[in-house]
Amino acid sequence: MTDDHRSEATLTGTEREQLEAFLHDNRLEIAALLDGVTEEQARRRLVPSLTTLLALVKHATFVEKAWFHCSLAGRTRTEAGIPEDAQESFVTDDSDTVESVLAGYRRAWAEADAIAAAYDLDDLAVHNRRGPLTLRWIYVHMVEELARHAGHGDILREQILAADTG
Fold it and tell me: Please, which domain of life does this record's source organism belong to (predicted)?
């Protein structure tokens, strides 16, 4: 796993190469939310919800595990170490640090990639509450999910950094 953006290198790639590249690029955007921020900044709440920079990365770990580890590989949420309720994935505690949450996210996405490598795009994830769906659907959904949360995080990060330098 390299830390370079890949989507520009797959302009004429296969469908799978393009999906994996966009997913990888959005994973990098999520990880970058914590680049250079302090523990306090990572936990700072600017909205009424539990959304913080740290919580967004922790939630991204949850969605990696929910879709790849559970839905595709068939693990239970308990086996994957994630809560049953997605909202609980935004909860942080004193053991969650920038370093630990980021490391957990990188492990979850590396394992997700390893799991997905054994499947074709049309293979079905049957261990899902929605019913059978394809790996292609999971890839597209993950791109959408991570892009949305990276956007949320970009706005929070901009506000936090501006407040602390202004």
Answer: Bacteria
Q: Is the pLDDT of residue 100 over 60?
A: yes
Q: How far apart are the first and last CA of the chain?
A: 37
What is the chain's length? 166
Evaluate if pTM is beyond 0.70: yes
For CA atoms 138, 113, 56, 19, the dihedral sign is: negative
In a domain, 84, yes or no: yes
pLDDT tens track for 42-79 = 999 999 999 999 999 999 999 999 999 999 999 999 99
Q: Classify residue 76 by its DSSP letter.
A: -
DSSP 85: S
Structure tokens at 119: 């499947």
Range of the domain at 71: 7-165
